[in-house]
Amino acid sequence: MLIKAPRGTYDILPEDSSRWQYIEKIMKETAEIFGYREIRIPIFEHTELFERGVGETTDIVSKEMYTFSDKAGRSLTLRPEGTASCVRALIEHSQYGGLLPIKWYYVGPMFRYDRPQTGRYRQFHQFGVEAFGSNNPYIDAEVIILLIEVLLRLGLEEYELHLNSVGCPECRGEYRQKLIEHIEPYQDRLCKDCQTRYTQNPLRVLDCKNEACHQAIEGYPTLFSNLCDKCQEHYAKVKETLIENEVSFMHDDNLVRGLDYYTNTAFEIHIPGIGAQSAVGGGGRYNGLVEECGGPDLPGIGFAMGMERLLLAVDKLGEKFAEDKEPDVFIAVMDPAYESQGMKILQLLRKAGIKAEKDYNQRKAKAQMKYADKIGARAVILIGEEEVEKGFLTLRNMRSKEQFQVDPQDLVRSVCKTLLID
Ligand code: ATP
Ligand code: MG
Questions:
Q1: pLDDT tens series, the chain, 422 aa
Q2: In the chain, which segments carry CATH 3.30.930.10?
Q3: CATH 3.30.930.10 matches 14-168+228-317
Q4: Atom 25 of ligand 1: nearest residue by CA position
Q5: Does 54 sit in the ligand 1 pocket, CB within 6 Å?
Q6: Distance 292 CA to ligand 1 centre (A)
Q7: Is the beta carbon of 207 within 6 A of some atom in ligand 1?
């Protein structure tokens, strides 16, 4: 039986990979300009890390994790997101002992057992940043401005930034109780998930994907109207800074990140017109997480963007990615006896930074010229009987069709000249 890629995974073929290289480059450049440095974390971790770091009542941990036992019977999980691993690495390497804040970014595949559809895969890719060690609202703004800067550099000017504050453990604790009391009389009208989770984590009902749940609890008290003074101040400063830096946003009472150690700023970015899965990124402050994972009481904030959905949005713009994959030079040998000489010239050109190719399929001389044309070579170096006997090489400009005899000693210079004037 023919083996295919597992459901929810896909290949990025070479003709597609330039799009990926392009967006990765923009993400990395932008993050570096903002002072974030790359961290590379493992693809799998101890399952417990995500149970603690992502939260047991989240969709991710309750049903989406790729968990397996290794040969020694340890429970491991393919990373469903990057924050938990960053927090683990921060603690494991005592990075908090140095200069603060610590600003990291990562790019790579994540794994979730989701129902595959457009914009939703089982192996997908995220770009994310984390900033540890500052509770200053200006760094909340920085993280959001960085995310928007990535969108703008990708040409994505039409975004919707949803913003909310989920408060601190104190004000949220009181609020939780109020919300549970509000939901209680309507619990029969909630979806199955919400019926079981509303007592444990009532905030999850607010971001349930089920419209019926929202209708059932209409008129609910908002977290925003229950924030303590300090949390209100923090939120006001973030909003003010975004306005001052020309980032538009909308306050969204329904936006909660369901996790307990999320605090204050929460945000999500949508790009209209890319289908049902319009969220391209989300993030927020998580002041309780480092401590929850066994580290010191260190504040943190970050976001993650879904690269597949961003690419969908970039494709909608209809711009072509600059492709520069064609070879500069093709080496055509008129007889297999000259192949070894062709090989040496190939390496000489490549060492000089010239993209060079030769035939590897024993094509006839004429077919080699056709092949050179097809792969888009801008120049061809011909090695035939006369060339070998008289000790020169023939250089052909494939656009102007002009041919010259060149001195092998002077080959790189001649090739460069031909490519330049072409
Ligand atoms: P959703 O509500 O779409 O399931 P989420 O809240 O689970 O998203 P986050 O955990 O906030 O998503 O991840 C950040 C971003 O990663 C999302 O905004 C989205 O762009 C992307 N993403 C999440 N899950 C997937 C997936 N299964 N396939 C592709 N992209 C995804
Ligand atoms: Mg999800």
A1: 899 999 999 999 998 999 999 999 999 999 999 999 999 999 999 999 999 888 877 888 889 999 999 999 999 999 999 999 999 999 999 999 889 999 999 999 999 999 999 999 999 999 999 999 999 999 999 999 999 999 999 999 999 999 999 999 999 888 989 999 999 999 999 999 899 888 888 888 988 888 899 899 999 999 889 999 999 999 999 999 999 999 999 999 889 876 667 899 999 999 998 988 899 999 999 999 999 999 999 999 999 999 999 999 999 988 766 667 789 999 999 999 999 999 999 999 999 999 999 999 999 999 999 999 999 999 999 999 999 999 999 999 999 999 999 999 999 999 999 998 76
A2: 14-168+228-317
A3: yes
A4: 120
A5: no
A6: 23
A7: no
Tokens of 116: 């595959």
> Which ligand has the nearest atom to the CA of 117?
1
* Cβ 309 under 6 angstroms from ligand 1: yes
Residue nearest to atom 19 of ligand 1 (CA): 306
Are 269 and 282 in contact by the 8 Å Cβ rule? The answer is yes
Architecture of 329-419 per CATH?
3-Layer(aba) Sandwich (3.40)
pTM comes to: 0.91
Residue among 377, 359, 358 nearest 415 (CA): 377
Query: 27: CA distance to ligand 1 center in Å?
Result: 17
List where CATH 3.40.50.800 sits in the chain.
Answer: 329-419
Is the shortest distance between the CB of 281 and ligand 1 below 6 Å? yes
Neighbour order of strands in the sheet with 329-333: 356-358, 329-333, 379-383, 393-397, 403-406
195: enclosing H helix or E strand? helix 192-197
What phi and psi, each to the nearest 5 degrees, are found at residue 102? -100, 125
Residues, the chain: 422
